[in-house]
From TrEMBL, chains A, B, C, D, E, F, G, H:
Gene3D superfamilies: Isochorismatase-like
Taxonomic superkingdom: Bacteria
Protein name per the record: Nicotinamidase-like amidase
Classification via NCBIfam families: C_hydro_YcaC
InterPro entries: Hydrolase_YcaC-like (IPR053152), Isochorismatase-like_dom (IPR000868), Isochorismatase-like_sf (IPR036380), YcaC (IPR048239)
Record-annotated Isochorismatase-like domain positions: 14-164
SUPFAM superfamilies for this protein: Isochorismatase-like hydrolases
Length: 210, 210, 210, 210, 210, 210, 210, 210
């Protein structure tokens, strides 16, 4: 018997961005820094584009972990932002869970640093409470591939779906016609080769229209 | 309790080729371009050799995504070819689903670009509707290995079988004696080292027969 | 609920070596040739050391696929050796299945070339019939890592256990005291660094005994 | 239906360190020696920091396998230390199982050398007996990636959770406030880049306080 | 006898950007698209920051090669821009060589797509004419690592210096005090982890100043 | 002092294809089989397109090394074809050297299997006799990367230039206008992503002309 | 004509450690953090063991670059420590060059972060002034392999020798008998597998002496 | 001006095997153990086959470094075997240099463990004294690729030629006809895929002769 397709729905999804802090990100070595930055901002842009309820959280952002990176903060100035006083698992923080529940959403899109802790722990907690969890693998970073693969395995075996930001965008969009220009801009900003396709195409369209 | 062997059957399988378009293929970086081209054409040749009902589909082929690559089109000039006006998931397009249902087949062999979207979405939809889905991993391409692995995991966890084109050919053929020369030609065209074995063998056979 | 430990038992296991033919092995690119040769012979030596009922089979060994490599044949001169006239899946060959059943064993240790076809197909067939199947991943080779990973996934999802030859040897042996010298010789022949440990140790023992 | 979150609990977890012997470690090639040493000692320090009941075991430590590495022994001078006379699977040794049961713990954190045997076998045994097993992937080493991946797959499919030492530390700690300085020291000793964050931070704090 | 240090000098260097066109860039597979885009723009920003005479050139930008990517064009609206009518080696185009000579500079910083042709050919030509050539390896892309390594070797053996954009920036700058904020902004825009260091530092400075 | 640019010249270059035999090619593991086949045929097509004097040679093609692959033979039915009776270094065969000299060319483009012997030996011999030698790295294959890198180093240090087939084609062509369609066809046949650019472009041109 | 062997001599060598600062090290991605830390400290220990004149320098250690890592500082409390006020190339700082000259040594062993700038620039400067320069490749880190390889090439082509810390130690030591225990301790502390050899050996020696 | 071809000559070459000791080999991680063992024995077999004067040497073979591996010793029971009492560089040992000089050979083929010390030091010494040195890269092992590449660079820049064992065998042999069966046996023993070619060929020859 095959599985039911648990499909992302922009009216039932919330975005959780966990501990993308300037200090912690310097620990990430399973992506190149430019790739990782691009992926994280792409995911943030998705949240904004689809107007997903978004929740921010950090751990000890006054200390060596550093503050939330400004690229995220400036995209969600009004989002609930939970500064955890000590809980490692964001789900152990009451305010965080309240904020999640306040969204009324049952699908949680989650990414963070580091994958094996800051992402995996709330993922496992939310799964246990019956949420559908979508872990954005390419916007979540950790120490090395061994650690990455272990964390992916643990979350997947518990029922989380592993997705990349591009799949998230496309699954939320469903149909290009819902906002063709908006999606094109989003992809163009974060997929350089897609932008190249569009650049070539536009040039030829211009030539055609002369 | 072990699983039942869901075995490909040439009388119950259909082939779905999704979005192998000239623009989109330039986004693929999890295979070398020559390997990927070889794999995709090998799969198309399999469809032709076993006379599988085959369905073609593209997304915005007038725009930057580009047209279906000619190597596919020329192999299936009479196949249903659904030009989707906007649906990202081919399964969201009624004509596509109708074409699938019209084949009467319950086993779907699917490949496309990019793996995490154009392949994964219809795979998950078809699984939900009870089809057996065979994802051809080496004829499906995407942005990088992180994306590839996430997509494979999601589809596999939902019940899809991950296969490569060579396994598809062999499972459909069952027995070399069903058409020895036909299969040999197929393999020779797409497995250079198998062709080398045949070249060496033929030479020796010729020598023997002198 | 955790799984029962399906543990290899030398009185209930049979060894199936499928299509390790001189032509087909030249297609293997997911291992270096020396590593692969070492692994295959190590597995054959395990079969001999534990006196496992062993079944050999080849596909078209008169043609370009080439004959079974002599290292295997000379270790099992009296084993049932099924030259398949055309069936790709060894399990589709009645003689092969009869030979398997004649062993009376319920645990099948299987390796072969190529992993995605010659190993995967009989593995899936045997699982369906209720056998416990142990796929020896490092004595089975194929075209590339994409193909390898797809095949591993398919077999694992169907219930096969993925093991390496060293784990097979150790699980069959259970306790070094069952035949310390025999196992040590086996490991020494196929694990160069283990042999090095023994060389250093022996030298020191000799010095001590002077 | 999603899985229950089987969460490490410092009052219900025991640590099993299996065969980290000077000879056997020289067989490990899936980690660089420095990374592996760091990971193993980190895990040992976790055991000490959380005062986990810890059990040590070795196989033939008078012979070429070599003695337990001193870094582990000196951290657990009073731990039960089972010198197995021949059993390959530590769980086949009565004293070992007794020692495990004597802890009264139901969560077993296990690491060792080599992953596919010394870790996998007791893991599968313990799972069968209903324990929750947490395999520490980065403190367990083996011959190569093929062997590593096969072993991870086998254990994961049987119900073990794959974790890395950092995730173990964080899941046991739950909240930084339980012992902020203790955890910080642990991380600082084994995550060079985390130490770097702390070094930079301290310098700036000192400057501030001048 | 050691070599003289041929050091980049902002008063003697010119920047040559060759064929960074939207079509050609889609052929690049020795960098991830995000890394490559970041590197190319970083180099362009260096040209602007140090006010280097900069020359742009493209090959058939009306055809499938596509136009120069807009990120470059908008940074150098007034730079000489040679649209080559057919010469593959930019140095074979008189206007290009005239533009180079018009700068009066003897140090040429060059990057382009693809490395083995569009970069290597003018590099070898310029070396022959006695220029010092600095090939920016990470802002030049090609088909694969074999191609990249061959091209690097050919240029290096002929006397070119292989440098990365960060080394170019630092060698031109000589001393941070020449424009501390300018260089910091440049690095911050293109080295995400350097930006993280600055983010953490600024936060702590702010805290200090409260 | 910089090097003179030793530039390929279609009127001074000859092509030497050494031991691309069906048996020997099965030893190649530093390229995927499809990539290698594509590269070798691309180089042969270059020879034909530029009408380079071409010399074929094989070693023991009646034995296990196998015959020259038919793709090469059919492109050069009239080329001198030296079947060496035993000399490993083609340059030790008088007929081969005579054939080279008969071309009157001073630039030798060479590729073959295996790189470290069949390519390296005649390369070193020809260099010694004052020829300019261009080793086509991606149309020459060998056992593994260690072997490849050693051979590249040895040849490069002796004065050979390392080039890839695409660079050879472009350096011989000099200017697209010499035969735009011919070069485009050559590239289109062997660079799948370049073909994709052309496919997209043609489609848009057609649309424009409607 | 072969090269003279420029051999490290403990009476003619000085050690330069450049910019191993807590912030800058977090930019290093061409080594795992544990490997890099181990290599850097090993090199520092070499400096101490052979009592090499050692010079420390940092760049802006009050700012985001962070202070020199304490492991280095505590090993050389009395070494000249040049806090550069802005010069990127340490050799542009008069105090640094004076300190180098004050050692009277003509062989410079250099390592630092990042390789392409903080190591390469003073290396090229020192070579120009006639020093023999030994770049310690594994104690110098940078952004990625492209950057690393470019920097190695540039320095090597200018006459620097690329060495690893182990080679440095052995070349300075010349003969184990100069201080057997000292060297053994050094190696044991930084080569975990060498320590394992010693652990096994000691155990056997102890057993022998009983 | 191109280089003279310094070609191996079996009447002018000697083989130096340095420190292939059971303990030291366990430090090698730049080859898989099976590949490395195969390469080392292949080189030893070459020495025997071509009756090259061969010199063995070890460092502290009574201690943790361990004895020379028996596979080498048994092939050269009568070779000069220098047990160095402490010199790290074999060339610093008078007996070793005397033994080299006693051969009267000017070409030195050298391999050993570890590459960066035990191979590099005598290589650099011998080059300085005017010998032609051939470093067998695949029969020399070290800690990791960084170390390997540094050592290769240093030796190559000083004038050593980097070769692999297969190239050594072929260059010494010159012509298959000098001893066809002997060379075939050598290759068959150490190149599994070459052996496969021969197995397939023999089978077909047998069939032909029936």
């Amino acid at each position: 018997m095959n599985a039911k397709y648990k499909k992302l729905n922009k009216d039932d999804a919330a975005l959780l961005l966990v501990d993308h802090q300037s200090g912690l990100i310097s620990l990430v070595q399973d992506f190149s820094p430019s790739d990782f930055k691009n992926n994280v901002i792409a995911l943030a842009d998705i949240g904004k584009f689809f107007q997903l309820p978004t929740i921010l959280t950090t751990s000890f952002d006054e200390g060596p972990n550093g503050p939330l990176v400004p690229e995220i903060l400036e995209r969600f100035p009004d989002a609930p932002f939970i500064h955890r006083p000590g809980q490692i698992n964001a789900w152990d923080n009451e305010d965080f869970v309240k904020a999640v529940k306040a969204t009324g959403r049952r699908q949680l899109i989650i990414a963070g640093v580091v994958t094996d802790v800051c992402v995996a722990f709330p993922t496992l907690s939310a799964l246990e409470e019956g949420y559908d969890v979508f872990v954005v693998t390419d916007a979540s970073g950790t120490f090395n591939l061994t650690t990455q693969q272990s964390a992916w395995n643990r979350m997947s075996q518990a029922g989380a779906q592993l997705v990349n930001w591009f799949a998230v965008a496309c699954e939320l969009q469903r149909d290009w016609r819902n906002d063709m220009e908006g999606l094109a801009t989003l992809l163009s900003n974060h997929l350089p080769n897609y932008r190249n396709l569009m650049t070539s195409y536009s040039r030829l369209q211009q030539a055609r229209n002369k």
